[in-house]
Amino acid sequence: MDSNTPRVSCIAIVDFSEDARWVFVTESVTELLGYEPRDVIGRPALDIVHPDEFPTVRQLHYDTIRQDKAAVIAYLRLKHKDPFKGYLLCAVSRTVVHNVLVGSVSLAVPGAKAFQNASTAQEVVVVTPTAKNFEFRRWGDPSPMPPSPLPNIPALLEPSADNRESSGSPKPISPPVLSFWPLPSQSLRSAFILDRFSIHCPIQYCSNDHLLSTTTVMGRSFFDFVAFRSDEIVRSWIDVIKAWGVNERGQPSDGGFGYGKFYLLPKGRDARNDRLPEATTAGRRREFSATSRSHSSRSQLQTNRSRLHSSPFSNSVTSPDDEVTVDAIFSGHSDGILVILRTTSLSPHA
């Protein structure tokens, strides 16, 4: 591969319209496809799809919305702004988030990274015929990926007596017109883009107010809205996603999907003050296994516990009624970490 080939992935959001108009895109789209974000926002994303693949991709866009899909990938060709670069084979991921599609775009490059992306996706569709080598199998799957329900589309050939050409063969019927009006609303998911370059992961984008108030969360640490009892596990998941989302050059890139379930705290807390320092936490673990405890260790732990309970944002004194159990999809990208949440009735420990 050319050393100048970009190894980045941009986060992109399109609407439910027939044209799939760009709603949001991160700055890595410039290195990837040559467009500035201002060049594409409000314009149809389907305009840069290869003409030979346009009907299939438009149908795919419609089916993704109608079937309320999540964490799915398609391999297709997109036009670079530079006409000399032509159309590039790309991996496009997408998840239905209430009234938009949220996902990413990256160049499709065979190898371990592509395998990781495909093996963690819920579904893979290869639109470009020459990209069949991206159709990976997963353990136990009878086909490359579990199929989605087929859309309820009438047969294109109707062999009835009233619908035959003079030759007697079935007369072709025009494909049904795809109807996008009124625009539907699907699963009440919310999408968040986190700063992957900070240990506190500040929230840089929030797609809607279903779970958290946009005006409240912007710029605050994502962990402020993770219940204290889920703090450690969610931090470990995000560390994994950051490690996955690195290319062969060690640069931030994409790295597949991760899935989890945790307790969300819509009211928020002060995660920086609520969290015990690592050294103190390690000391506490040693205390439990030791036969004797020093007075200084007990005093330090008591001080930290008092601070936790006195913090005005602390979740330590909140009740389970203040928490919401959510399903989460995590994915890492060049410009941030994408987190998609949806409420669930099941406990994370169920």
TrEMBL record:
Residues 137-171, 273-319 are annotated as: Disordered. Residues 143-152 have a biased composition (Pro residues). Residues 300-319 have a biased composition (Polar residues). It comes from the Eukaryota. PROSITE patterns: PAS (PS50112). Residues 289-299 have a biased composition (Low complexity). InterPro entries: PAS, PAS-like_dom_sf, PAS_fold_3. This is PAS domain-containing protein. It comes from Hydnomerulius pinastri MD-312.
